[in-house]
Design goal:
InterPro entries: Cyt_P450, Cyt_P450_B, Cyt_P450_sf. By secondary structure, the protein is of the alpha+beta class. The chain has a single domain, classed as Orthogonal Bundle (Cytochrome p450). Helices cover 51% and strands 9% of the residues. The protein has 18 helices and 12 strands. The termini are far apart. Bound molecules: protoporphyrin IX containing FE (HEM).
Length: 426
C-alpha cells in the first residue's frame, strides 16, 4: 500500500480530505444553536461586478464609511471592508471555513486543493510543500536561479524603444520563477501563463459557462500529462522543488493531492508577482522623488511592500460561515459566505494615512496583501525575494533612464493590477 501521511487515511475515510467543513455535515439547520443575535446586515443592491472590476476603490471608501458589513444580493455574499474585520475572519477558521461551497474551484482544478481545506487536513498538505519555501532553500537554490533568469530576460528587451513590460517582462519572469520553484521547468512560459489563466477563469466561473470550463479542462489535461512525464526525473533526482519535495517525502500525501496543489500554485503564483512588479514599477516611475530615495538606500523590499499594499494583487478572499455569529454587531448567519476585502483593509483610514497614495516611506505598513491566519500566503518570501530583491534593482541598474511612456490601465476585482505598462527603456 502506498505510504503517505498517516493522518491522511483518517481524513480520507471521513470525507474530511475532500475539505468539507466537517461540522456542516453533522449539523442540520434546525440543530444549529443560534449563538449570536445582532442587527440584520444592511443590503446594497447598487454594487455590480462590472463597477468593482473597473475601479473598486471609491466603492470600498463608501462602504468603510457607511456600511462596512454589507450584503450584496447580486453576488450572494457579505462584503467586509475594514482592516480589523478582514483580519478577524481569517484568524478564526473555526467559524469561517476556507471551503466556500459556492465557488466552482473543484471543477476548475479537478480536485479539492489545500486552499479550500481547514484544520489538520490543510496543515498536512501545506507542510508537504513547505520544504520548497524554506528561507534556506530560497537563498541557496531559488535566488541564484532568479538572478540568472532576471539577467537573461532583461537582456532580451530592446533599448530606446517603447516596450510594454507586462507581457515582455513581468508575466514571463513570474512564470519562469514559478516553474523553477515548482519543478515544472519542462513547461514553457507561454504554457505556464495559459494554464494559470485557464485555472483562474475556471475558478471564477460562477456563471458556469461551458466554454470557460472547456479551457480549464484542456489545461488540466496538459498539466496532468506534464506531471506524468516529470515524475521519473523527480524520483531519480530528488531536489528542493515543490513537486520533488512532495513526491519524495517519507510519508507523501496522495499523488492526486500533489498534482492538485501544484495546480493551485500555478493558478495562484503567476498573476500576483506579475501584477506586483507592474504596480511597483508604476508607483516608483510616477513618484521620481521616492524612486531616487529607494535607489540611494537600496530599499527595494520596502518598495515591494508598499506596492502590494497600494494595490493588493489578490484583493478578496471568500470564507464560508460555519455557525451563526456576529461582526460589528451585525448578525452573520451560518451557511453564508463572507468576502474579506484585503484591498480595502489596506486603505482603511483607521490604520493607514493617505492609503490611496503610493508612499514607500510610510511610518508603518501592516498590510494584509498576503492574507492572515493558517492560509497566509506560502509564497510570500519567494515573491518578496524574486520581485523586490532580484528584479527591481536590476531593472533600474540596466535601464537608469527608464520612464513611463503611455497610459496605464488597471483592471480586476479578485485579482487586480495594471494590464499594461508602456515604458521607454534607456
Ligand atoms: C505578490 C505576490 C503574491 C501575493 C500578493 C499573494 C497573495 C496570497 C494570498 C492573499 C493568499 C491567501 C488566500 C486566502 O486567504 O484564501 C495566498 C495564498 C497562497 N499563495 Fe500567494 N501570493 C503571492 C505570491 C505567491 C507565489 C509566488 C506563490 C508560489 C507558489 C504563492 C503560493 C500561495 C499558496 C500555495 C497559497 C495557499 C496557502 C494555503 O492555503 O495555505 N503565492 N497568496
Amino acid at each position: 500500500m502506498e505510504k503517505f501521511c498517516k493522518q491522511y487515511t483518517i481524513w480520507s475515510e471521513t470525507g474530511e480530505s475532500e475539505g468539507r467543513p466537517g461540522r456542516e455535515d453533522k449539523m442540520s439547520d434546525a440543530a444549529i444553536e443560534v449563538k449570536a443575535a445582532g442587527k440584520p446586515v444592511p443590503v446594497d443592491d447598487t454594487i455590480t461586478l462590472e463597477a468593482l472590476t473597473r475601479d473598486p476603490y471609491p466603492i470600498y471608501k463608501r462602504l468603510r464609511a457607511e456600511t462596512p458589513v454589507v450584503r450584496v444580493p447580486k453576488m450572494n455574499r457579505i462584503l467586509l471592508t475594514k482592516w480589523a474585520d478582514t483580519k478577524y475572519v481569517k484568524d478564526n477558521p473555526q467559524i469561517f471555513s476556507s471551503n466556500d461551497p459556492i465557488t466552482p474551484m473543484h471543477r476548475a482544478f479537478r480536485a479539492h486543493t489545500l486552499m479550500r481545506k481547514d484544520g489538520e487536513a490543510h496543515k498536512c498538505e501545506r507542510m508537504a510543500m513547505q520544504g520548497a519555501f524554506s528561507p534556506k532553500v530560497i537563498t541557496q537554490d531559488w535566488v541564484p536561479r532568479y538572478e540568472q533568469v532576471a539577467e537573461e530576460y532583461l537582456d532580451r528587451l530592446p533599448r530606446d524603444e517603447v516596450v510594454d513590460l507586462f507581457p515582455m517582462l513581468a508575466a514571463p519572469y513570474a512564470a519562469r520563477g514559478l516553474a523553477v520553484l515548482l519543478g515544472t521547468e519542462e513547461a514553457s512560459d507561454e504554457e505556464m501563463i495559459r494554464w494559470s489563466q485557464a485555472l483562474i477563469d475556471g475558478a471564477g466561473n460562477f456563471g458556469e459557462d461551458e466554454a470557460i470550463f472547456a479551457r480549464s479542462e484542456a489545461a488540466n489535461d496538459e498539466m496532468d500529462a506534464l506531471f506524468t512525464r516529470i515524475e521519473a526525473r523527480h524520483r531519480e533526482h530528488p531536489n528542493n522543488s515543490a513537486f520533488s519535495v512532495m513526491l519524495n517525502a517519507e510519508n507523501p500525501i496522495p499523488l492526486s493531492q500533489i498534482w492538485a496543489n501544484i495546480k493551485i500554485a500555478i493558478g495562484g503564483g503567476i498573476n500576483e508577482p506579475r501584477d506586483a512588479l507592474c504596480t511597483i514599477l508604476y508607483g516608483l516611475l510616477s513618484n521620481p522623488d521616492q524612486l531616487e530615495r529607494v535607489k540611494a538606500n537600496g530599499d527595494w523590499v520596502k518598495a515591494f511592500e508598499e506596492g502590494v499594499r497600494w494595490v493588493a494583487p489578490i484583493s478578496v478572499s471568500g470564507r464560508y460561515v460555519l455557525e451563526d455569529t456576529e461582526i460589528r454587531g451585525y448578525h452573520i448567519p451560518a451557511h453564508s459566505t463572507v468576502m474579506t476585502i484585503q484591498a480595502s483593509a489596506n486603505w482603511d483610514e483607521e490604520v493607514f494615512e493617505d492609503g490611496h497614495l503610493f508612499k514607500v516611506y510610510r511610518e508603518s505598513n501592516p498590510h494584509q496583501s498576503f492574507g492572515n491566519g493558517p492560509h497566509f500566503c506560502q509564497g510570500t518570501h519567494v515573491a518578496r525575494r524574486a520581485v523586490g530583491q532580484v528584479m527591481l534593482p536590476r531593472i533600474f541598474e540596466k535601464f537608469p533612464n527608464i520612464r513611463l511612456a503611455g497610459d496605464v490601465e488597471w483592471k480586476g476585482w479578485g485579482f487586480r493590477g495594471p494590464i499594461n505598462l508602456p515604458v521607454l527603456l534607456g
